[in-house]
Design brief:
The structure is a homodimer of 104-residue chains. In chain A, strands 2-3-1-4 form a four-stranded antiparallel β-sheet. Chain A has three helices and four strands. The first copy, chain A, has a single domain, classed as Alpha-Beta Plaits. In chain A, a hairpin with a 4-residue loop joins strand 2 and strand 3 (48-55). The first copy, chain A, is of the alpha+beta class and 104 residues long.
Chain lengths: 104, 104
């Protein structure tokens, strides 16, 4: 399992605009091979958000970043003025994973 | 959905010891109400790890941190010398989530 996190710092007062931009975007992820799940995370620190995506492998994530769907997904609108700094991408390999048991 | 991330910086050369400490620990998470999944993530930056847990809610995570199981889980062995600094905990609420469709 592989996780990509893109960390955003939002201009004070523009948090609602940032969330709206994500809610109204076209995702394109549903048909991408190796995609497992996505979450937009809001941190406890002011203006802190993470675009958080989980993949079957690093190769699946890298193939997505080279795809036409990726270009289309990232060509939607502009976050100018909403984000206070360029996003910072960090990449992680899962070395241990554990899932809750299926509960009745 | 709620995510807790505890970020670790490992002393250079002690990465294998850090992973072994996690692999050999008792997890205690399986029976915790509201627990969804756990991963130990290894970052692309040298010595960078995240203990990453996903919960149904912030309340479920907070109840875990007040439980006997939490005290037992965190009383196992010592990471002295293996971690270069105290871990840094960050907490996140998911404001958007998306799952891959179930594939045949």
């Amino acid at each position: 399992m592989f996780i990509a996190m893109n960390r955003f710092s939002i201009t004070p007062g523009r948090e609602a605009d940032f969330e709206t931009a994500w809610r109204t975007r076209e995702s394109y992820l549903q048909s991408v091979p190796g995609f497992i799940r996505f979450a937009l995370l809001k941190g406890d620190e002011p203006g802190e958000y993470i675009s958080h995506s989980t993949w079957e492998s690093r190769a699946a994530f890298e193939a997505w970043t080279r795809s036409e769907a990726f270009r289309a997904a990232h060509g939607q609108g502009s976050l100018a003025g909403i984000i206070a700094a360029p996003p910072r991408l960090s990449l992680y390999e899962a070395v241990i994973t554990e899932e809750a048991p299926v509960r009745a």
